Structures are given as C-alpha cells and as structure tokens.
From TrEMBL:
CDD domains: crotonase-like. It holds the Pfam family ECH_1. InterPro entries: ClpP/crotonase-like_dom_sf (IPR029045), Enoyl-CoA_hydra/iso (IPR001753), Enoyl-CoA_hydra_C (IPR014748). Gene3D superfamilies: 2-enoyl-CoA Hydratase, Chain A, domain 1, Lyase 2-enoyl-coa Hydratase, Chain A, domain 2. It comes from the Bacteria. SUPFAM superfamilies: ClpP/crotonase (SSF52096). Belongs to the enoyl-CoA hydratase/isomerase family. It comes from Mycobacterium asiaticum. One of its GO terms (molecular function) is catalytic activity. This is Enoyl-CoA hydratase.
Length: 268
C-alpha cells in the first residue's frame, strides 16, 4: 500500500514500521481537516496491510500537538454554519480517529515532547503505548476556552486514572508533566528529553519483532472487554486463542520453546 504525505502530516513506511509525523511546527502541530483525513485513511489502511507491524506517531518541532486547529476548521466559509454542524462533522473527523487508534489491530506508539493538548493529548491516550519527555506538558484546554471536552477525553481518562483525577484535568484544567502522567499511569513511560528517541526506537523495535497477530488480538480483547460481562469476554478469549494458534508465529513460538532459542517472529 502507498502512504502519501499531505500538508501537515508526513507518512513513511520503513520496513514493518509506519511512521506518521505531525509536520506543522509553526502552528504547534495543531491538526486541521486535511491532516485528520489523511491520518484516518492511513490508520484504516495499516490495519489491513500485512507489511505493517507497528505504527509510530510523533511530531516535528518542539511540540507534539496543540489539539484541533479550531480557527482553520471553523473559518472555511464566510457564512455562519448551520445549527448542528459540529454534531454532523465530528463523527467523520476526531470521533472516527480515536476509535481507529483503539481498535486497529496493529500496535501504536506515540512519542511525545513539548505540549500535548486536547486532541493531541487524546491521541497519546488512545495509543497502545505513549513515551514522553519528562517535561512534556499534557493539558485539557476546554474550560479555558469555554468549551466542552471532545475526541474521547471523558471516556479515556476515567478508565485510566479514575474520576477524581479526571476532574482535576478536565474541569479544573490542571496541566501535568510527562513525569506525572507516567506516575499516574496515563502513559507508558517518561524519560529525559535527550533519551526520548532512543527509548521510543527500542520500544518500536520490540513491537516490530513481536507476534503481530497475537498482539492485535490481545489489543482487541483489552479494548472490547470494557463493556462485556465475564462470560462473553471469555468467549472472545477463546476465539482469539483459536485464531492465534493458527498463525505461523504461534508455530515458531512453540518451535523456539522446544529448541531452547529465541523466537524469530515474522508477523504472520
């Protein structure tokens, strides 16, 4: 498959890694509709592209993402939009992106430095793994703008940190650092800024060499299990086990165990 770059979002596949980079540093990588549409298309394509085994999302410049570009997204016409335009628009934009991040059966790593606000924060939350510089600033800007949360903020955060801390972030607009986010369990890990690229590369490399089918099925189980009773979830676990046991990587894993060597998974 071809992953084309667009203005504000670079896309490049290096072996098993699809690398998506926000490239709008002059606007703190605020996401406009062109970037959103491309990102959604790339995630959907990568989910069925057997050559992609991990997706890395990061950014050019000092900041990860300042959220949605509200000015660009609301000044496309000189005429006032019809009532309900936000409700009609979101299902095809940010509200499609977040479920794709959660459901695409390819592991996703977000690499964050500088500011991650609003949608930028939520992309980091929805990734399977987020590694951030310890001085990163995570922020929910909605109350400061007289607005309400979007793109899954009030769904993602309570599941990760509970309601009390979510209220601090969403209702009081408290900023937290990457180090605090890691301490709270919001993100995978935080490290010194000069170590971020090496830490991220090690994690991405580990995922790229892992059993991709089993990883994807485990991701599905973790996400879908939130809304299911135990009996239904156990049925899904049985289905996932059946599928994983038919993969070439499962056979390689058994052979490696028998031969007392490290497995060499091919992602199939």
């Amino acid at each position: 498959m071809s992953y084309d770059s667009v203005s504000g979002l670079r896309a490049e596949q290096n072996g098993p890694v699809l690398h998506l980079t926000f490239d709008r540093a002059d606007r703190r990588n605020a996401v406009n509709d062109v970037m959103l549409d491309a990102m959604i298309a790339h995630l959907a394509a990568a989910g069925v592209d057997e050559s992609v085994r991990v997706i890395r999302i990061d950014a050019e410049g000092p900041d990860f993402c300042a959220g949605s570009d509200l000015i660009a997204n609301n000044t496309r016409s000189e005429r006032k939009p019809r009532v309900g335009s936000t409700q009609r628009r979101l299902p095809n934009k940010a509200n499609r992106l977040i479920p794709l991040l959660l459901e695409t059966q390819v592991p996703i790593v977000a690499v964050v430095r500088g500011w991650a606000a609003g949608l930028g924060f939520h992309i980091a939350l929805a990734a399977d793994f987020c590694v951030a510089a310890d001085d990163t600033r995570f922020w929910e800007p909605f109350m400061a703008r007289g607005f309400t949360p979007d793109s899954g903020a009030t769904w993602l955060l309570p599941r990760l940190i509970g309601l009390v801390r979510t209220r601090q972030l969403v209702m009081l607009g408290q900023e937290i650092t990457g180090a605090t986010a890691a301490d709270w369990g919001i993100i995978h890990s935080a490290c010194a800024p000069d170590q971020l690229d090496s830490v991220a590369a090690q994690l991405v490399g580990q995922l790229a060499e892992a059993p991709t089918v089993s990883l994807g099925l485990a991701k599905w189980l973790l996400h879908s299990g939130n809304g299911l009773d135990l009996d239904r979830h156990l049925q899904n676990e049985a289905l996932a086990l059946e599928l994983a046991s038919r993969s070439d990587d499962f056979k390689e894993g058994l052979a490696a165990f028998r031969d007392k060597r490290d497995a060499k998974f091919e992602g199939r």
